[in-house]
Amino acid sequence: MASGDPGAGGGDRALPAGPHRAPATRPPVHPAPLSEISASRDLAYRDPLSLYPGAGALLSSIERRGILTPVVLFDGERGLQAAAGFRRLEAARQLGLATVPALLRGEGPAALFLEAVEEQAGQELNLREKARAVAVAHQLGWPVQRIAAQLCPALGVQAHRGLVDKLLKLREIPAPLFDSFVAKGFSLRQCLPYCSLDPAEGEQLARIAAHLGLGSRRLERATAWLLEISRREELPLARVVEELAILAPFEPGQQARAQRTALGRLERRRMPESSARRQEVERLCGELGGGLRVAFDPTFAAESIEVALRVHDLGDLERARAELGEQRVRRILGEILERLAC
């Protein structure tokens, strides 16, 4: 591939460990000593082995059959550097291999990086990998317009400058928290509000996510509420977490209960008046028996809690009337509506 990089070389050469006659189009594969290959991940955009779901299978395969696809190397500022095959190199180091099959390329890093991304086009990438690829191109000196036009299509994202800017902004999210968000499948929109966090706050929120094992929607709700309380009360986030005992230990098998307890404490701290009203409405609905259900939908923007009354079938209300009496049912329903209107 031709390269417009200032650091592009004049052609391919062989590794010192092997013969050095190479075709102009594709260099031969040679065994490269791992000790001579830099551990730099400057051009890596795929997740490292520690975050890769298929790490175990990759290690097992290499242990049994060796590395079948050669890694791609180039002469860089740190000596021999990788342009592709970073996880294979990690696996080889973990397994204690002395050498890996490699291709030594003469092009510059920008051309090799784009080639690596294009060769992986069509493979599913998570948000962290997309953001990392855009960041690598930016570090290589690519303008935003070039990233949008050349890189984004290979990443499977819209070729738009605004989207590139947003992906670059994700670098500001503390890594532990971003990893938690990616693990829960957060979208770009869900991640952007956390770009200005202090690293200590990000680490604290990541601990909460790991401790409670919250799903995507509940994690988004909990983190937003914690930050809202911290900012409004002008208290350090760590103090709010401590006061609400969010990280309190729980018995095995009690995680779901711990989740409900933590979210309940957050809700009461965030909106004490609405929380008290909710408890009163629940008490009144309880007087109607088990047929009438109340679903609360706390939202980030709303000043109060939205409440929806759901009757599963027409007989529910009739049974309540029969058990409690018409006048009492009317009184309770009137009180519920009055509470909701407050």
Provide a brief overview of the structure:
The protein folds into three domains: 30-172, Alpha-Beta Complex (Conserved hypothetical protein from pyrococcus furiosus pfu- 392566-001, ParB domain); 175-270, no CATH class; 272-341, no CATH class.
Question: How are the elements arranged and paired?
Answer:
Blueprint: E1 30-33, H1 55-65, E2 71-76, E3 79-84, H2 86-95, E4 99-105, H3 109-119, H4 127-139, H5 144-155, H6 161-169, H7 175-183, H8 188-191, H9 199-212, H10 216-233, H11 237-243, H12 255-270, H13 272-286, E5 292-297, E6 306-311, H14 314-324, H15 326-341
Parallel strand pairs: 2-4
Antiparallel strand pairs: 1-4, 2-3, 5-6
Helix pairs in contact: 1-2, 3-5, 4-5, 5-6, 7-9, 10-12, 12-13, 13-15, 14-15
